[in-house]
Records
---
Amino acid sequence: MLAVPLIRIIWDVGNLKRFTPNQLELLGKEMSLIKNQELLRKVIVLRQYENYGYQIAYYLLENEALAIKAATQALLELFKADKFFHQPLSFQKQLMKKVFIKHSLLTKASMATGS
């Protein structure tokens, strides 16, 4: 692993010129690993709310296809909200409910207007 150079680069991006191509390649692999770990962590958190969120959407929409559409949009919004993943579980659950309800109502409204 390339932990020390990674920390140096994070704190001082201007030091990139000091690294050899091999060190930069290792750094890229390590950063990719960190991104993959972060993605996996987000997926694990969202999986906790997926079924309950779908139930909310289905209850409001009474249509499986629309509920899937609304749930997908809600999960995407939550996935993009980095702050969501650093909040206590009680706050996450509260926000999750709001986001699923919002996207369910948006989906219902878009079907009513025909768009």
Note: The CA atoms of residues 70 and 107 lie 6 Å apart.
---
Amino acid sequence: MPLENPSPLEIALTLWNIGIVSEQNLIAWADAQILAIEKPADDLLEIATKGAKVCIKQGLIETLPIALGYSEEFFIRAYLLDIECDSATKSFIAWVAHNCCGSTETPEAVLGYHLEHLYCDCEDVDAAIAMLRVELPKIMPRCESFATMFLEQVSGLELCI
């Protein structure tokens, strides 16, 4: 997983790939980048003219989304989550319940396994929401550390959260 020095385009494509950026917003961001750079990369031009879906499907670009692990995607989604919004919180819990994996030595995985149990096994969404609202703030510095490093490289990219 190439998380050391990812390019802004790799990050933008990754956020699009995981559903946090729309195709339209990605194209608008690519357009803005092209105008700001003296000699934009070919991949940026392709994204701006054809969109990410077509470019990736047809193999028109070399730059691809980063394959994030559960923890990295959790950090980004948690950082962007409005924990007071019930519908956003339910969506986050559903994502966690269906994607949780990893060592029980990491707090995000432990929380994920507990949420998955409450959400899937017990079908107790309210208990899952209550648990998330208590436990997530405890690991938010970990989430914020990764997410801000990742997101600050694509300033101006409008997110769908």
Note: Residues 30 and 44 are 6 Å apart (CA to CA).
---
Amino acid sequence: MPLTAPFADIEDMLTGAAFALLSNVVVTPATGGEFLAIFRLADIDPLSPPSIVGDYELRYPLADATLVPGDILTLRGQQYRVADDPYRLADGHEAVVPLREVAA
């Protein structure tokens, strides 16, 4: 019998509910189903390489999508390409992936 945290199901439910309230975009991948995400301009950190104008980030629940570099996503009618591998956040339930706008 695998060992699990006693409140893992409750934590997952609350995380999903909070994410649904905070999301600001519905993502439609070229393959797979739609999912909710948080879409924003990348933070500019003075200690990292400078961000280029047009750096976008997509934060999403890992259980909802598997994204790889080169995937095309449609957000608010505009297409974006996944620019790099996603990286996991904190507890591993969410990921952030950089996006680049696809030229029309």
Note: Strands lie at 25-29, 35-41, 56-61, 72-75, 78-82, 87-89, 94-101.
---
Amino acid sequence: MMRAKDFPALLARRDPHPALPGQAPSASKVECWLGSSPIARQASGPIVLLAEGESARKRCRGFEVRTVGFDPPPGSLIRIDSSSAMVSPELLLLQMARVATPLELAMLVCELCGLYAIHPQGTRGLIQREVPLTSTRQIGEFLNDVRGVPGAPALRHATRMAFDLCASPQESKLAARVAWRRSDGGYAIPIVGMNESLEVRRIGRRMEEAHVRRPDVILRLPGPCGPGIGLEYNGSDHLKEGRQQRDALRANELLAYNFKPYSIWRDQYQSTSYMDGLMDRVIRSELGLPRHRPSARRAAVELARREALLAELNAIDGLRWGASASRPTVIRAREAIEEARERPLDQ
């Protein structure tokens, strides 16, 4: 339901004094509610309901009742109607921390803190949002109120790995590969921001007019250290008629603003050798970062980690949980890390 297009309007109904039901509802009551609530009808099954007390646990056809062993912080419940509420984005993430893999959880944090929602029936399999449902700062504040609760450490770690204001799943995955540590399969290149507004000048007859461009990934803003540097992910939608012309106009306006946007197409993103060259040779040089010079063995292990991260990110679809790490491609990629560690130095 949190991915429903009209869900952001419900966020204004956060209950400052949340109270979970003390017992599980009957199956007939749940079925009646699912049929009468407009937003409930948008939910995909099975439905998970929350209640207090171990005696409230219940599993029926089409829904399951789980229990919460702590008092939810203020604002953790959102009123849907006079008789029902749903969990906040932060409480949802805490619940998902028990079933999602670490990478799945990090990508879900990016989605809820981002400008998109995965929606199989939507254009490109997602819908765009004007504002995020939450932020990494809000999640951090929520976690300060639930210390010691199962799932909280995993969510805290995922939040530290996540990014605010990503506009698509691929932007979230690209940001992870760029910024995460070498030990996690990334290139350890700091990100300044995602989709931050830059006021540029129009190119045309009315060049005095200013308008806003939002580069996907900002690595440096224009300043004394040199031009701004950013990354743009170009998916298949950028091949549509007229889109490449608009992309060229966008790039030229950013270049005129002294901001260099490097475009990454899907095939380039999937090529570890291409990304290695772009990130470790071109981008690091542009940013004035020291060259990365690992030993032969360390280079082999880091390469295997980058390919394992790519494999697992590719396996995450945002619809199935706890399964991506067990995909054959991911298992093979992780085995390759161990093989690289154990390889003799002369090989």
Note: The first strand starts at residue 14 and ends at 15.
